[in-house]
Amino acid sequence: MTDTAENTNDIFLAKLSLPVRKCMANAARECAGNVAGVLSLDQKETYRVKLAVDEAFCNAVEHFSGSADDERIHLEFSIRDGSLVISVRERGIPFDHAKAERFTPGDPDSADKPGLGSLLMQQAMDSVELFVHGREGKEVRLTRKIPFGSLPPELVETKPAARGKGRPTVKEPVIRLAREDELAEVCRLAWRCYGFTQEAFLYDLDALTEKVRSGEFKSVVGVDPESGALIGHAGFKYHDPAVRVPELGLAFVDPAYRSPGLPHKIARLLFDLAAEEGDRGIFDCSVTTHTFSQKGMQEMGSRPCCVMLGIAASGMRAKELATSRQEKGSVVNHYYPLDRTPETVFLPERHRAMARDIYGWMDLPRDFGEPDGAPLSGPSSVFVFPLPDELNVAFIVVGAIGADTVREITDGLRGCREKRMDAVYAFLPAGVPASPQVVEACERMGFFFAGLMPHIHDGQDRILLQYIDIHLDLDAVRVYGDMTRKLFDYIRDEQRRVASL
Q1: How far, in Å, CA of 491 to CA of 309, rounded?
Q2: What contacts 185, CB < 8 A, 6 or more positions away?
Q3: What confidence score (pLDDT) does residue 4 get?
Q4: pLDDT recorded at residue 192
């Protein structure tokens, strides 16, 4: 017989956030005691867990520096590889347990030394570790092996729906625009597929309905003709209805069904609608945790134009694929131009070869003009747009380049960093001769090349730069095809070059 706990990797038990005040230690202890009760730990083991949590919490309060009014101490309890793991995280002054003065039992000279709490934690737990997470603060991690049979079987995460067997196959789904009375089911289907990691309006029926009525969002569904069940969805988001460049996204398929080629069929209808309604082109954002969405877009004729690092929500995963959760994801932007009117763009000489490739992949005619080297002058227009909280990133959009543009971008970046944004993306007009000057100034700030976006923001092509303020494992990024690989390799090289400036 095998212990349930020994067959598990990571099972969430509880999470609690408390003010940085010693009077809240009792709440931390009670939470620890409740977790111990769920695991049926005996009185002695429960006491050990509560003692260790109490000491870790009080240490965090005692060694916190600066104003704690808006700060919190975060406790999280989980099971990992047969052990109870307790994480105590906060953003106080780093405190190294290894270098702390040691409390020695029976030594009168150590009575006033601060190491008693650390000693108690070490004695109560199997291990006490300190991790420093940069701007996110530090973590004390307490680990204690739990006895055989402690973990209730119902806490073991259920397996994703099995492929093939037991799932009905819908060979000829009905593909059409969603009716208003179906939008509530669209909300539910989004949750079943991706939890709450999609955009907020998709879970708010009133907001979704309003966007559909106004034309800001176009929703297309795949329907099982036998049962009438909605089994798939994708939509167009019109960020600027006047520009008519929708973003294809919010695509998901019910994991309880099989329907080969369903995402492609839904996208085909949306592409046809865009052409009929005179849209200038179609964008999409394909995640880099897997390549099937990237492959699908390229099969539709879309081509990679940007790689935006660190923009996807933390915790994103496709449930039906059982892909592992990501700390922070990235996306590949593809573009399918419907308007192929020739235009002139201005880029630094260094980026022109890559830009020629990008425009060539899209078969979008562009001439490269000579930059204007005169000092920047005239009025400037720069806007900072924070994206939804779950993304924790912001856009800096330059509407007009003028004398104060570089300073305004600098101020915008500083403000985003003070708010601890994970990343900031700058959109510069490519059709302005002064743009190369601003690109180079941004690169001196730490921005680096991300790609090009045709026809957006007042209908202009945009040079996209990115400033990444968190660690990303770029080796974990998955890209599809030679075109995207070439662009991604160029972006990595640019990140290294800019970092050396």
Answers
A1: 10
A2: 230
A3: 37
A4: 76
- Helix, strand, coil percentages for the chain (3-state, nearest 5): 35, 30, 35
Whether the Cβ atoms of residue 118 and residue 142 lie closer than 8 Å to each other: no
Segment 170-198, tens digit of pLDDT:
999 999 999 999 998 998 888 777 766 66
CA distance 350 to 247: 29
Centre a 10 Å sphere on the Cβ of residue 50 and count the other Cβ atoms it contains.
19
Instruction: Tell me which residue of 247, 251, 258 sits closest to 224, measured CA to CA.
Output: 258
How crowded is residue 45: how many other Cβ atoms within 10 Å of its Cβ? 19
Q: Angle CA(270)–CA(336)–CA(202) in degrees, nearest 5?
A: 45
pLDDT digits (tens, 9 = 90+) for 121-177: 888 899 998 888 776 788 899 999 888 777 787 776 444 444 445 678 999 999 999
At 62 the pLDDT is: 85
In angstroms, the CA 328 to CA 309 distance is: 9
Query: Region 354-370: what's the mean pLDDT?
Result: 96
Residue 18 in tokens = 């408390």
> What is the DSSP secondary structure assignment for residue 258, as one 8-state letter?
B
Q: Give dist(CA 452, CA 460) in Å, integer.
A: 11
DSSP structure string for 142-194:
EEEEPPTT-S-GGGSPPPPPPSSTTS-B-SS-EEEEPPGGGHHHHHHHHHHHH
* CA-to-CA separations, 3 to 7, 8, 222, 299, 313, in angstroms, rounded: 7, 9, 43, 47, 35
Element (H, E) at 17: strand 10-19
Evaluate whether 266 touches 302 at the Cβ level (below 8 Å): no
Phi, psi of 55 (to 5 degrees): -65, -40
Among residues of the chain, what percentage have pLDDT more than 70?
A: 85
The two tokens of residue 430 are 């490519």
Pair 327, 314: CB distance under 8 Å: yes
Count of residues making up the chain: 501
Q: What's the pLDDT at 390?
A: 72
Q: Rounded mean pLDDT of 392-418?
A: 95
- Average pLDDT value over all residues in the chain: 85
Residues 6+ apart with CB under 8 A from 77: 12, 13, 14, 15, 31, 32, 35, 84, 85, 86, 87
Question: Quick one: tokens of 169?
Answer: 């196959």
Cβ neighbours of 93 (radius 10 Å): 11
* Most confident by average pLDDT, 104-108, 302-306, 384-388, 474-478: 302-306
Per-residue pLDDT reduced to its tens digit, 456-484: 888 899 999 999 998 888 998 999 999 99
Helices within 226-313 (DSSP H only): 262-276, 292-299
Q: Which amino acid does the sequence have at 143?
A: T
